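subagent[fold] <- orchestrator: predict structure for attached chain, return tokens only, no commentary.
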Amino acid sequence: MQKGGDYLANKKQTSSSVASKASKILTSPKSSKTVKSVAASALSQTKSKKK
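subagent[fold] -> orchestrator:
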């Protein structure tokens, strides 16, 4: 058994194309709260860009 909880970590990440669509959904005034919540969740799982 691993120590520290690494076995609970979610290693999956949102692809850049899905992240782009999620970004457009979040900026659209026509998107519902539920849809925006799902889009925000997808964006939170994207790989962060290093500067």
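orchestrator: received. Logging for downstream: The longest helix spans residues 16-27. Helices lie at 16-27, 33-44.
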